[in-house]
Amino acid sequence: MTEPPALVVPPFPTPLRRKAGLLRRFVIGWGSWIHTLFEKSYRMKMGTVRFPLLRFFVINDLALARDVLEERHCPWPKHGLMTELLRPLMGESVFSANGAQWQAQRAMINPAFAQAGLGRAWPAMRAAAQDMAGNLRQAAARGPVDMEQAMTAVTADVIYRTLFSQSLPADAAETVFAAFDRYQRHAQRYAMLRLYRLPLMRRRQRLSQAAAAIRMLFAPLVDARMAARAHVDQPLPPADILDALLDARHPHSGAPFSREALLDQLGTIFLAGHETSASALAWASYLLAGDAGLQNRLAAQIAAVTGGSPLAADHLKALPELRHLFQEALRLYPPVSFLMREVVAPQIMRGKAMAPGDLAVVSPWLIQRNADNWACPHAFDPGRFARAENAGAAREAWLPFGKGSRVCIGQGFAMQEAMIVLATLLREFRLAPAAGSAPEPISRLTLRSRHGIHLRLTLR
């Protein structure tokens, strides 16, 4: 009988032996949240972390996590610290709003997302993926490719086409990658300084500067579209998300979005529509690069399903192993590793007294790497999503898109986009890790690598 191949454990930070004290936690947390985790973090049902500003309650118990995310017994709004970190980029948008304001904004943007329906978005996704392949052929000829930058470019291009009906210029893609890298770095340091009640050292200004570089990419497009629509007597059906947002009206007052509110919503859609997908796709490409057999098998499946013709929507349904690969990448490297909610009423969970203003954390990173939920939780095993015994875990302990009313509205969009990009990548290239050390994941607003994810790409 042939022994099954040994599972590979891709890189993740070695947990601390014990919980760090305040000073050590500050030093480590200056760069990454996941590096502050200790061994028990990956086994416990609930833990407490105290900072000078507030207390964190880390909720890994699946039933309690579901109660929080689905708000089964009381509201669990986005915590003020998270909205504070994102306000320079997203303003008072649907991502950061709570209560009635959130409900009204969600009602206004839901019709806009009909413009990003999977059928409508398909041409934009396929065109962007084909442009990606051409760019990668040129980049690969020069040496190893940073897949984080490449995946940021393609996912930003997809959402830009969906928002504005035009492709994202190459120099703009570079601006997005560099600006959001700066934003993440300053946001992490801002958070640590706030938690320790220390002076912010101009971090607000630096966040605003990085955010402005991103928002300026689409502000001129908004102004031009608003000016053009002012001269149209008969309104036309919306052609893209920007048109749909311009048509949106408040459910009670009937007022449209103001220019600034529109930029806030676009900033949110643009960030949420590309950054998390770029993170997951970069890690998925790294996982593929370490498994030549899986690459070849997937490439053969794609060739058999497509018959060499251009990728079509129906083809994706016949590629479950490719979908499982991306699901496993999201399990091992969830782009948003910590979901922060605010305690609004005194309560007790697992014997711990929680007070209003405390911060409740549901962590996809920890829940998806807990041995109570998944066998060999740190190992790369995309086949786990095909096995019947994991159906419950896939439903309850896999939450890269969150759960409840705030579940990511773009989940279907992201899954389709990822499969198109990965299928295009596998049709064109063989992937292998570049010489040097493995990438090191770091967790700030999203999960990235400390120094990029560098791969060697060769043409098939």
From TrEMBL:
Coiled coil: none annotated. The keyword Iron applies. It comes from the Bacteria. The keyword Transmembrane helix does not apply. The lineage of its organism: Bacteria, Pseudomonadati, Pseudomonadota, Alphaproteobacteria, Sphingomonadales. This is Cytochrome P450. Keywords: Heme, Iron, Metal-binding, Monooxygenase, Oxidoreductase. It comes from Novosphingobium capsulatum. Belongs to the cytochrome P450 family. It holds the Pfam family p450.
